[in-house]
Amino acid sequence: MKTNTPVRSFISRELSYIALRTTGLLLAVLALGHFMITHITNDVAETDSSFVISRWSSTLWVVWDVLLLTSALIHAFAGLAVIVHDYSKNPESRARKLRLLSILVMLLLVIGLMVMAVSLFRIYGTGA
Amino acid sequence: MTSVQIGFLVLLSISFIVILGFIHKVWKVALLVDGGPKPSISRLTKLGRLPADRVEISRWAAYFHRISGVGIFIFLVLHIIDVSTIAFSRSLYDNLHQIYSTWPMRLFECGLLFALVFHALNGLRLTFVDIFDVGIRKSNIALRILLIISIVTTLGGSLIILQPVFN
């Protein structure tokens, strides 16, 4: 019997399935909440750097943004992996695309977290 | 127009081209793999017709879920890059961020709102349908309701987002 063996990836399909749905549930609150405070309750013209800095001065919004960033990237990776599995039938090109995708997602996570770390250091780093 | 603003617009244009390319891919594979007649305006208007156990509308919801997901991800990439300018200098960020309050960008934000709300609600529907096994009929009724909610939310949100343009 010929089986259509998917490329062995470092994340199993079961874990990917669970991750896609749990991060999806989180994002339904986090992403829509983020859009709401930047476009509905505040006008987008007011969301300048002082708006960002004042938001990151509160622990709630730091936790919110870190969770939003990581869950959005996990969700995007799992979702795009499904699309790659659907549209790319050649195992080699599939593996290459998944590798490129994971590098892109890791890079974005590092950039996002570093930007937050630098900003938090500027806010709190001068010492008490 | 400063150089960072031009850079942002170039990246935004590239994003649109990538999204259009992806829509073309979804469309092509949809005709090739899933079969069925080519979608025309008259067919699209008949998508939501009753009875609710017709599956045609949920097939199109799946395509739009995919397209909106990829669109939101490409905007996320752009957004992470533009917010990262705040780590270099606050004035650079403020300068770049002025683009967000121009009227074409506000129109884009209205589209983003629709994509976000539809993708969130449709994703919740799919998760719910998976866990509780509610069947095609109820799932399609839920799809109609969430489509109405997405359109109403987007129209209401757009009024707020676009208000400064008319003042």
Structural description of this entry:
The complex is a heterodimer of chains A (128) and B (167). By secondary structure, chain A is an all-alpha fold. Helix content of chain A is 77%, strand content 0%. In chain A, helix 1 crosses helix 3. Chain A is elongated. The termini of chain A are far apart. By secondary structure, chain B is mainly α. Helices cover 80% and strands 0% of the residues of chain B. Chain B is built from 6 helices and no strands. The chains are: A mainly alpha (128), B mainly alpha (167). Chains A and B meet through helix 1, helix 2, helix 3 and helix 4 of A and helix 3, helix 4, helix 5 and helix 6 of B.
Write the layout of secondary structure elements.
The complex is a heterodimer of chains A (128) and B (167).
Chain A: H1 13-40, H2 49-56, H3 59-87, H4 91-124
Helix pairs in contact in A: 1-3, 3-4
Chain B: H1 3-33, H2 41-45, H3 56-83, H4 90-97, H5 103-132, H6 136-166
List keywords for this structure.
heterodimer; A: mainly alpha; 4 helices; 77% helix; B: 167 residues; mainly alpha; 80% helix
